[in-house]
Amino acid sequence: MTWTFILRLLLAGVFGLVIGLDREYRVKEAGFRTHFLVSMGSALLMIVSQYGFSAVLEQPGLRLDPSRIAAQVVSGIGFIGAGTIIFHRQIVRGLTTAASLWATAGIGLAVGAGMYGTAAAATVLALVALEGLSLVFRGLGARRMAVSFTASDREAVGRAIDGIRSEVRSIVSCEMSSQMSATGIVYRVSLVVTLAPKSNGDRITTLLCGNPDVLVEKIS
User: Fold this and answer.
1) Rounded to an integer, what distance in angstroms lies between the CA atom of residue 184 and that of residue 174?
2) pTM, entire model
3) pLDDT tens-digit map of 118-139
4) N or C terminus: which one in the chain shows less Cβ crowding within 10 Å?
5) Domain boundaries of the chain, sorted by first residue
6) What is d(CA 37, CA 199) in angstroms, rounded to the nearest whole number?
7) CA 199: distance to chain centroid?
8) How far apart are CA 147 and CA 70, in angstroms?
9) What residues are paired with 174 via a beta bridge?
């Protein structure tokens, strides 16, 4: 029985690792190690919930609910998922990674319960959701992007913003600050823009890099 449990832990870790590699490739907040541990840990808790109290059940009048620890995993994994969600400058990041952690915990529970086929199918479907759906529906809707740059004067800032406005659907927010440098006053601008369908940040990058008075800091 012990080797069966070890096999379940290894299999759950492998399933979590597969999903985590995708998140690692996408440079997300939770990578392959986090997903491996979440899946393996969930399988361990499911095994403990099912078999860890078998000796206690020999006592008369005692009953066991094998779902109680699994239920705590489902709710408790939300704390880890919440840690990957970031709201900054009108942009929410990490929701997909949080959802992948939640799904990985479910996969681990399934493996811990001995439902290998279901866990494998869930792993494949999770990968389809993370990679396949983004390829199929990449042209739908509009997404937001953060753009940060510095400029040597206000006129350069105005030209850069006008150029960006011509390439995006709308500018959601705009923040500008100034600071002294060795060459004089430098203006730092942070924008959040909404991209039109089927557009990306390459044109914005090309536009800003073509302006000698502007230094691009971040486009993401």
Assistant:
1) 23
2) 0.62
3) 999 999 998 888 887 766 665 5
4) N
5) 2-136, 144-219
6) 37
7) 22
8) 43
9) 191
